[in-house]
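Lay summary

Proteins are chains of building blocks that fold into shapes. Our project writes down both the chain and a compact code for its shape. Here are two examples, one after the other.
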Amino acid sequence: SLSPHNVARTEVMLALDTRDNELSPTRGQFHTLQFRISPRIGDALPFGYRQLNLTARVFHTVGTPRVIFAGRLVGDAIQGSAPFYELARFEETNAVGGQKGVRGVLAQRYHGKVKAFTNLELRVRLFRFSLGRRHYTLGSVAFFDAGRVWSELPASRALDGTGLGLKYGVGGGLRLMEGSTFVVRADVAWSPDARPLGIYLVAGHIF
């Protein structure tokens, strides 16, 4: 239903964080396991569902502190009757598509109760410079994103098909960091789903 509604949710999350920096890490790990439950209570709260999300993130220097490999793997599953908009999202943002999921794929194009995707990035810090009292670092990124959505488990042949069904995007971008507190990223992604390219200018790394 697309009629006005309310949703009451309870969330529990476990996290392991060994990153050397929360904003722009160069090494360490950040893993989260999140469980969400929403009760159905008559017409006031019509959507009853449960959601489980596992997200693993790793960061590692490659040869020199200026080159960082960053990887993220996400699995998200919903059981029950969730609102329609939750079928395209994870962590309140788009999953397979959009600026924080699989870049190059249109946001909210693919919906399903089960989502899995990965982001792989090679981040290079090119050089540092100063403007007045502010210190900046300019960097570049090459990336590969890929993911898949299923209507539910077990998968439906009619809705999900029988092939691999991966949606993916490849591309590169620039990063402008002010000290260790602020990052601006500009990404350009190509995907078979893009028309013709996905272009993103936002604050913060994708993860």
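And here is the second example, written the same way.
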Amino acid sequence: QMTLPVQPDMELSQSETRPTASPSVMLPPPMVEASRSADIDHLVAALATAQGQIGDIPRNRTVTVTPRSGGQSYQFKYATLSAIIDAIKKPLSENGLAYTQIISHDAEGGYYVLTTTLHCGNQFIASKVPLIAEGGSNQQFGSALTYMKRYTLAALLGIAADEDDDGNAADGNAIT
């Protein structure tokens, strides 16, 4: 798991009524606590229409995985983040929907991706997912980031971007 120093998102100025953040006192970053707005009826209707317009997303990447524990290698196909974005951009826009994917951090959980689907009229649904990266390089962090952005965006929009292996690869089972 990647461990990086946590910095507050912002420091308060000396002129404000609360003290400036210091290494011993960390102020929590502003974040969306709720996973949805109180009302989501218009968002759900717009999302349902957009989902009908999105159709199948081409799984444009094939990878071969060799399990760390040994055993037989296996292949699967998935849609890259750019293929997902290409497929969803127009249907979302035509239905008054947008999404954001913000990278942030907190003192307890480390780095995370906050993916939010928004609809005009202040309706939203959101998903906060931790970033777990092995090693400490920027490339490893970037790889974990792209992976989580792809999965959370597909999940939040209710679209399929991967072949389903029924969890067998995650369990280390041979897939034939």
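What can we say about the second shape? The longest helix spans residues 138-157.
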